[in-house]
What does this fold into?
Amino acid sequence: MKTRSPLINVMTKAAFKAARGLKRDFGEVENLQVSRKGPADFVSAADLNAEKALREELARARPDFGFLMEESGASEGRDPRRRWVVDPLDGTTNFLHGLPHWAISIAVEENNAIIAALVYDPIKDELFTAERGQGCFLNDRRLRVSSRRNLADAIFATGIPFKGLDGHDGFLTELKGVMAVSAGVRRWGTASLDLAYIAAGRYDGFWERGLHPWDFAAGILLVREAGGMVSELNGKDIRLDSPSILASNNALHSDLQRILIGKGTPGAAPARRSA
Ligand code: IPD
Ligand code: CA
Ligand code: CA
It folds into this structure.
């Protein structure tokens, strides 16, 4: 049995506490689907309650850390070098529709680098954790990214822009490129779990534009500690304010990147010109 560090223990305790409330509320959502008012207000209250539970628990354990939270924004702590980056409910649309695929995401940022990460899926009881230099774990099992080397065998995950977001045409071009060469593309609607699934070797790569820091802060450390690569879509180093993210196992990173930025299929023969 793996012994968890004090920091991971603090994060796990907070996540389990918030998860209890969220699971109870998720059970209620099913009843509310059929009511005239629908579950939307109820779900935003569930989200806020989860954030409050996490904040109380994390602040009690590490009173000096600052916060960057989806609902309450940024607040500096007495220790300006460290802060929690938290999404209390990632996958809200799934939650709202009664789809059992959503998560709590907690990261610790220290001097602008992520040093500890947790993504917890309460429905499947899957706890993904990582600390810098210490590897990545699913519950107590060590994780490695997949070893697939061929695009034709690979499954990729992505996020599709929805109403209110731009970039729909650009996304369709990216999708077309990946569809043509891969074994399939998935859109499961929870970016933190998309990244955790890369770490677990379930997906071989993931890309999305327009995410917020709390969507991927924890996920980037999970992927790296499982031996994978994370960058922006253009190959630049990932930062919390990056406009895009590309994560994969090492073997496929540059191939996937070339396809997404429209530089063609790696290894493909150049198209013959017609006379
Ligand atoms: C969303 C999810 C989703 C992604 C969206 C995010 P939320 O987070 O991570 O997978 O495609 O862009 O906003 O709103 O459910 O916390
Ligand atoms: Ca989110
Ligand atoms: Ca959220």
Q: What stands out?
A: The CA atoms of residues 18 and 50 lie 5 Å apart. The chain is about 35% helix and 25% strand. Residues 269-275 have pLDDT under 50 and may be disordered.
